[in-house]
């Protein structure tokens, strides 16, 4: 059986069908919509494939416009907006069955010397001391429901929550809208920096909006909201490997008007800030 990390690499390996046009697979899974992190990661691959490979991406800004259909290929059309002396800009439109479902603008920057400072990483337990997410859910429920068991087998990331999951309304009392997880790919991802960047983009959409829900409902119980990502922005500060442990520290400063805002900071084990993330999501009561 293929390792889930290998499947992730395959998912990010787009087929080039024209000079600036790429096609990506969309797994035929029992989901209502295509996972947003997959579309963002594939769009960034398409953008990166049209650069010289010497300038790493430093930021992306994206909008989720329509839900993608699982099992249907997605076509990524890249516009080469700018090739400057220091910066390269690409715009990507994702199309499925003739309809635009997503767009992304990515900027690539040739690294240069400058100011060096950052806020410190929060003090948290080491990842090896924390239970895997599937084990924590299995411990609480006694066994994993079939759908979660399939998800756990296919999950390309080892996920470990810094704080134990809350399961009851009593445990939610006084909880702040914050969450933190250690993550890493479950297997090697190779040595292409673009693959690692796009894999982290994929992972960044996995639970960031959960920070909005922490004071309201248990994260792994039946959801009381229909949730959907509206937009997504990332700033890449330093090189990294996504198959090594990274801490995803998340908070939600506000939720109102049916939308919730979440911010994330991604650190390596040495405490270096690697990536900053901001996302807004839609929260409609069911």
From TrEMBL:
It comes from the Bacteria. Pfam families: 4HBT_3, Acyl_CoA_thio. InterPro entries: Acyl-CoA_hotdog, Acyl_CoA_thio, HotDog_dom_sf, TesB_ACOT8-like_N, TesB_C. Residues 154-282 form the Acyl-CoA thioesterase 2 C-terminal domain. Keywords: Hydrolase. Residues 33-109 form the Acyl-CoA thioesterase-like N-terminal HotDog domain. SUPFAM superfamilies: Thioesterase/thiol ester dehydrase-isomerase. PANTHER family: ACYL-COA THIOESTERASE, ACYL-COENZYME A THIOESTERASE 8. Belongs to the C/M/P thioester hydrolase family. This is Acyl-CoA thioesterase II. It comes from Streptomyces lonegramiae. The lineage of its organism: Bacteria, Bacillati, Actinomycetota, Actinomycetes, Kitasatosporales.
């Amino acid at each position: 059986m293929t390792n889930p990390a290998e499947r992730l690499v395959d998912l990010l390996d787009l087929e080039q069908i024209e000079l600036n046009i790429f096609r990506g697979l969309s797994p035929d899974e029992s989901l209502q919509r295509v996972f947003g992190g997959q579309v963002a990661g594939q769009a960034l691959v398409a953008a990166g494939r049209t650069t010289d490979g010497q300038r790493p991406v430093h930021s992306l800004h994206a909008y989720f416009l329509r839900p993608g259909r699982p099992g249907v290929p997605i076509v990524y059309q890249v516009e080469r907006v700018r090739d400057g002396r220091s910066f390269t800009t690409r715009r990507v439109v994702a199309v499925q069955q003739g309809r635009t479902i997503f767009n992304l603008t990515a900027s690539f920057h040739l690294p240069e010397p400058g100011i060096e400072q950052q806020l410190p990483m929060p003090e948290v337990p080491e990842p090896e001391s924390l239970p895997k997410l599937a084990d924590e859910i299995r411990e609480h429920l006694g066994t994993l429901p079939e759908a979660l068991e399939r998800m756990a087998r296919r999950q390309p990331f080892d996920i470990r929550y810094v704080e134990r999951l809350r399961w009851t309304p009593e445990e939610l009392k006084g909880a702040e809208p914050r969450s933190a997880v250690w993550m890493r790919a479950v297997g090697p991802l190779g040595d292409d920096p673009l693959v690692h960047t796009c894999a982290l983009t994929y992972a960044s959409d996995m639970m960031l909006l959960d920070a909005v829900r922490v004071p309201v409902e248990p994260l792994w119980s039946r959801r009381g909201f229909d949730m959907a990502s509206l937009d997504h922005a990332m700033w890449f500060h330093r090189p990294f490997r996504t198959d090594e442990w990274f801490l995803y520290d998340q908070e939600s400063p506000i939720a109102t008007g049916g939308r919730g805002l979440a911010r994330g900071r991604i650190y390596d084990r040495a405490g270096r800030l690697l990536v900053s993330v901001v996302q807004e999501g839609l929260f409609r009561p069911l």
